[in-house]
Amino acid sequence: MNSEMEMKKAFYKTEHGGTTGKLEKVVTEYPAEECWKHEPFEVVTQCAPCKDFEIKAIKAGHCLKTGYFDRVNCSKSSTTVLRPCPSPKQSRRHEFYLFYVVNAAILIVSFLSTTQRKAQLERAVYMRLPQHF
């Protein structure tokens, strides 16, 4: 059982890769897993869903928060790392709330401008009323 887990972990490491194959390694002051925070990077795979094995058995750090990850290639250190990304459901929820707030603001501005214009027109009609008699 234990050797099977070791085999799965080894397979996981080879599947997700740690380096791009270049022999040069740049020594950095930060962990290699956080290179995307400190240097330019390129997103190789964007918001891919994690497998059940990654979430339940390995408890991979990049999968625990949202269940989705980005594969990122860091330029300076030439490493490929995985980082958590927000799930599509969370980003859609954020977009919906933004849409809701913008529409509420438009509603308030429209209501105020309409009431002001209506009052202005009623005043104009009231001022013209004595001219007809």
Automatic annotation (TrEMBL):
GO CC annotation terms, alphabetical: centrosome; membrane; mitochondrion; spindle
Transmembrane segments: 96-113
GO biological process, one term: cell division
Native source organism of the sequence: Caenorhabditis elegans
Record-linked Gene3D superfamilies: 3.30.720.220
Cellular localization per UniProt: Cytoplasm, Cytoskeleton, Microtubule organizing center, Centrosome; Cytoplasm, Cytoskeleton, Spindle; Membrane; Mitochondrion
Chief place of localization: cytoplasm
Keyword check for Membrane: yes
Family as reported in the entry's similarity comment: Belongs to the JTB family.
The protein's name: Protein JTB
PANTHER family, per database record: JTB PROTEIN-RELATED (PTHR13041), PROTEIN JTB (PTHR13041:SF3)
InterPro entries the record matches: JTB (IPR008657)
Signal peptide: none
Listed Pfam families: JTB
Record's bilayer topology term: Single-pass type I membrane protein
Keywords carried by this UniProt record: Cell cycle, Cell division, Cytoplasm, Cytoskeleton, Membrane, Mitochondrion, Mitosis, Signal, Transmembrane, Transmembrane helix
Keyword Ligase included in the entry's annotation: no
Name of the gene encoding the protein in the UniProt record: cJTB-like
